[in-house]
Amino acid sequence: MEEQEHEQGILNILDEMLNIVEGRNEQSKKARCDATPSLVNKKGKVNEHARQKLIDNINLMKTMLKEDNPSAEISYTIQLYTPHQVSTDSTKMFCECLAQILTVIKFQIVEEQASLQKHLPLLLVCPSVSRLEPSVDSALDGFKWDESFKVILLNFVTEKCLPAISSKMKVPLKPAYKNIEFIDMAFNKDDKLYECEMNNTALSKIMTFVETKRNEETMID
Q: Quick one: CA dihedral 177, 178, 180, 185, positive or negative?
């Protein structure tokens, strides 16, 4: 069963890449309002959002193919921070599931800010409990980090109840959010980190984050 889900996940990513290249999302009347547009518009200009989505998907494909190789080694370490004021059994279960999916990454799960390491990239886990802004403010309460980082917004709902608009389109412009990129993810206790467009996109973004950080370190060295 897990092998079939893995293969289906790869097929879904390839379909999304074809959607971007062929412009299927723009042609479909049922496309979500935040669906990725065509890579090249009618005037021949490249859409940067679509280009980035292709890069994200390629990085995720590389990860999934590495997972098919038993000899694949862990390629990078990043911190998965669940602030103690928002940490629950569900957020802990999510962290464990994410580590089981992206096995080429070593996740250091941290609950106390004092235990964070400045030299390692950071993903902060924020459960979206009710309204978005109070949830984010609660997770970031007292948090200080000089480097850019990403916030994973957890939606504890089934696929049919997922929001149609991404969080980045709903987050207010506040100084505290200036260096943050928000990543939407879906999770529940029954289906865990289930297969859906939102999670595929999120996994792609995480892998691009890892590749970017690794390339930055290579340039410094």
A: positive
H/E/C letters for each residue in 49-106?
HHHHHHHHHHHHHHHHHHHCCCCCCCCEEEEEECCCCCCCHHHHHHHHHHHHHCCCEE
pLDDT by 10-residue block (mean), the chain, 221 residues: 58 73 57 59 74 72 59 71 91 91 88 90 88 86 86 89 78 73 89 86 87 74 55
* Domain with residues 76-220, CATH architecture: 3-Layer(aba) Sandwich (3.40)
Task: Give the start-to-end residue ranges of the domains of the chain.
Answer: 2-67, 76-220
Helix runs in the chain, H state only: 2-22, 24-27, 48-67, 89-101, 132-140, 197-220
pLDDT for res 221? 55
| pLDDT score for 3 | 57
Q: How far apart are CA 151 and CA 15, in angstroms?
A: 27
Which residues are paired to 152 by β-bridges?
125, 183
Phi, psi of 24 (to 5 degrees): -65, -35
